[in-house]
Fold these 2 entries.
Entry 1:
Amino acid sequence: MTDKTLHIVGGGMAGSEAAWQAANLGIQVVIHEMRPKVETFAHQTGNLAEMVCSNSFRSDDSEQNAVGLLHWEMRAANGLIMAAAEQHRLPAGGALAVDRDAFAEFVTEKINAHPNITVEFGEVNEIPSTGTWIFATGPLTSPALGQAIAKETGADRLAFFDAIAPIIYHDSINMDVAWMQSRYDKGETEEEQKAYLNCPMTKDQYEAFIDALLEADKTEFHEGETAGYFDGCLPIEVMAERGRETLRFGPMKPVGLTNANDPENKPYAVVQLRRDNKLGTLYNIVGFQTKMKYGAQADVFKMIPGLEDAKFARLGGIHRNTFLNSPTLLDDQMRLKSKPNIRFAGQVTGVEGYVESAAMGLLAGRLAAHEILGKPITSPPGTTATGALIHHITGGAEAKTFQPMNVNFGLFPPVEGLKSGRRGRKDRYKAYTDRAKSQFNEWLEGQS
Ligand SMILES: Cc1cc2nc3c(=O)[nH]c(=O)nc-3n(C[C@H](O)[C@H](O)[C@H](O)COP(=O)(O)OP(=O)(O)OC[C@H]3O[C@@H](n4cnc5c(N)ncnc54)[C@H](O)[C@@H]3O)c2cc1C
């Protein structure tokens, strides 16, 4: 082992991909993986890159879908996770689903056979001050390491639960019904006074909404998952169970607001949405974290006036998830600002999903390898899927309300001169993906 060795903690989606990328650039890599010595509640095997739940990498359409585009970029960068997925692909329509055991075994074999990679089994529970490290310990980062990270970053910068309210594309909201206003017009500037998007409800609409919430299908918590979350962020359906008026006195209170589309009529309840990114393309529903099943969420939330045609960038959820407040903690090279010898990658950086996590591993592996080689590179531009994600987590997202994010076109800067709204969507997405592919290739070529 030399001081040019790259240490990677966690051999999951991100850690395996990071190791593969760095090793292919000639770097000596040691993966430190705690399983099977120390287990998590979700992993079942000692394999690297184990899929803990679904066996799908989602859409493989690289022209109309942002996650499909991420697949494309990872393939272009010789990604191991995509190669393994391709090798063990199962029929699944337009989605990329895999035989999960064969997939993880393939990744494990490739890593074990790589001459530049060593795997050491054991838990890492401190943040070293020397050496080059990538921490890719995922949503189920071991508690001891979680404590060490919290000590380094400040406890308020590391979350252990992911309480996500649904996020909606702004261009799918009906602004003839909704209006922009902050409660009591609070704020110094007009932008602040109109920071929230409001959807009004009549009494009948509110009552029907509460009924739907109470009747909706919900997912259950895994054992050990509930500790510590109930204080801060109650799911809306739990609030509704506590009393039919609870929401109207909580996140749906109608006070301090006048419906700009119908000023004479006072709404009985109001659902508020808050901007979720600097571009203003995404809005989250304030206080609407939920354990409703995905199908039920779409049905119930479309009952909200103004959201009848809502398109969701992501649906809500609450589950165990350790993640950093990356917008404040990481620089644009994924390094911890307070200890630049440490990078983070994968879901712990505040991306969500197998593909996004692997993509962040791919990037961290390349960035770290180039740094060790003395040839630093920049991250890909924000017009690419990989770049859009890294820009979002290291600066584009609102730090105060930061929650894990899937890749989606709302994170991309618009292509000028294209129609907005539903009609132009197909052309717009094609323009995004064409632009991304050419700029991702340029980024790759710039590294040789
Ligand atoms: C219950 C559950 C269900 C999920 N379902 C889905 C789903 O259906 N689809 C989806 O796309 N995503 C799902 N996710 C998210 C999923 O975990 C991530 O998408 C992906 O696995 C994250 O990749 P990662 O490499 O960041 O973390 P992981 O793949 O979890 O890898 C992290 C690795 O680090 C190891 N590790 C942790 N702490 C230490 C330590 N201190 N020392 C050494 N090693 C350590 C772990 O053992 C693990 O191998 C789910 C997550 C959970 C918790």
Note: The chain has two domains: 6-157+324-447, 164-320.
Entry 2:
Amino acid sequence: MAKLCVRSCCHTAVFDKDTMTHLFSPLRLRELTLRNRIAISPMCTYSATDGVANDFHLAHYGRFALGGAGLVMLEATATAPEGRISHGDLGLWDDAQIEPLARIASLVKAQGGAVGIQLCHAGRKAARQRPWHGNGPLGAEDLALRGESGWPLVSPSAIPFGADYETPSALEETDISAVMQQFVDAAGRANAAGFDVVELHVAHGFLLHSFMSPVTNHREDAFGGDFQERHRFPLQVVAAVRQAWPADHPLFARVSALDGVDGGRSFDETLAFSRELGRVGVDVIDCSSGGIGGHSASTAGGGGPRSYGFQLPYAERIRRETGVASMAVGLITEPELADSAIADGRADLIAIGRQALVNPNWPLHAEAALGRHDPAAPFQNWPEQYGWWLNGRQKIINAMR
Ligand SMILES: Cc1cc2nc3c(=O)[nH]c(=O)nc-3n(C[C@H](O)[C@H](O)[C@H](O)COP(=O)(O)O)c2cc1C
């Protein structure tokens, strides 16, 4: 488990570049050491064919590794064809999907990054258009224009995501075990592909999260009802994947800290679930929110206004109150905010999403912005293939000042 630091002192007064915990301190998780606390957040690119990664994915994820991230987390990757959000999702339900992902894992590791993959079953939110085609349920137009049809959806209960969406079938108990096995098999393939980290997607209203929320789970069997029943299946999946995933490799789980809708889960349930996740061997809880659908109840969670670092309080409370390491995500765009979150013990890792799409070199820039370099050679940690050029250019610029 990650070393927890709960210091809340003012870091400007005691700043010590070498000894204090900061954005660029390494983080050891089981036998894996991350070179810094920056992770690239999982972000779907909807660019695969039949779940198979291609050269776009190789270039896309390679850029983040060259950009200095400690951990490059690949996007939501389906554990079954019917668990895809769209026709373009990556998949790990078939051995043929291993090798193209192994190329990506190998490239990231060769550049000094660690590499993770997020495993997901989209449940009742599956079979959708790519965002740039509308983001709605697949329909006749998608079939006519792109040859892409929808497929039957599954969920804990037969409640559709929205008015336009197909009503999912409630999973039978035998199907529930099959879904669990698909997660275990996908984790086995992730290991064969050389990934360092698996993250289970237990957030955003996808299948595992939809078991946990009273909004989407109306079951009356062992998998629905009070806290224990609703969280039973996600916990079983996490425990089964932990058993199958190598003991020296870290396991992450992304949670929606709040559903943020009428009748949704409370943060107390997230805390209790996080303790259970730690108990079954999850190393890092990745703290997101929202996605379950329904009417927004308040300004909290998925429905609320979003400001810089808006989900940091969840990461902070989870690590402080459960003792499990946490990853913060959500509008963390400035190096100073990311660094202070680590230094002040509010999170163990910072996930950067959209800002990394704007600038895949965000970690390298952040390191310079935080003054962790000799100003005369601010590109010392850049890949040497261009760092030496850039430092030469800096000397010229400095001489002109
Ligand atoms: C293009 C895009 C794709 C995303 N895909 C995923 C995904 O595959 N899995 C996931 O858990 N979150 C996904 N997210 C959410 C991000 O991981 C992240 O939590 C969110 O963007 C907030 O962080 P940010 O403000 O740094 O972008 C996606 C976000 C974007 C913008």
Note: The longest helix spans residues 173-192.
